[in-house]
Amino acid sequence: MGQLQQFQETSDTYRKHGWRLARVLMRPDTLAQLRPHRGDEASAEAHFEDVSVQSAEVDAMWFARASHEGREAWELRLVGETPYALFELFEADEADEDREDVRREMEARLRGYAAPHCSDLDVNRPDPS
Q1: pLDDT tens track for 22-74
Q2: Which one-letter DSSP state was computed for residue 27?
Q3: How many CB atoms sit inside 10 A of residue 20's CB?
Q4: pLDDT tens for residues 41-51?
Q5: Which of 40, 87, 111, 128 is the most exposed place for a label (fewest CB within 10 A)?
Q6: How many separate domains does the chain show?
Q7: Does residue 54 belong to any structural domain of this protein?
Q8: 9 in a domain, yes or no?
């Protein structure tokens, strides 16, 4: 299955369970696959329900939904063959900048998780030394 198809299937699955797509993170090569079909980055955003598509080191999607007692649940889902996600529950009165700090930390954790898995793909790459 192609990477763009995995993005679509991931989005469809989360929507079925009441999540809304909040942000999309794409590696440059994934963005390049999308642009020939859409023309430019603005079109890439439209393809993903008008949410922000950001260039990143990993392919991932942010989803959000309301939770109990006014809280908001956020999940960062790696888009790849192996399912992996990080979850955070924000209090209703939590400041936006505090929420954003937590989301940045989650993205760093996801990059840390994905990096060893990505390097496994480069086993046959010659040693540059």
Answers
A1: 999 999 898 888 766 555 555 554 456 678 788 899 999 999 999 999 999 99
A2: -
A3: 14
A4: 555 544 566 78
A5: 128
A6: 1
A7: yes
A8: yes
Q: Is 127 a domain residue? A: no
Cα 92 to chain centroid, rounded: 23
CA 115 to chain centre: 15
Say if 23 falls within a structural domain.
Answer: yes
What single letter denotes the amino acid at residue 33? Q
Host domain of residue 104: 3-122
Q: pTM of the entire structure?
A: 0.81
Other C-beta atoms within 10 Å of 69: how many?
Answer: 6
CA atoms of 72 and 97, how far apart (whole Å): 15
Encode pLDDT of 94-129 as tens digits: 999 999 999 999 999 999 999 875 544 333 333 333
Cβ neighbors of 113 (< 8 A, separation 6 or more) are 78, 84
| 62 vs 103: CA distance, rounded Å | 9
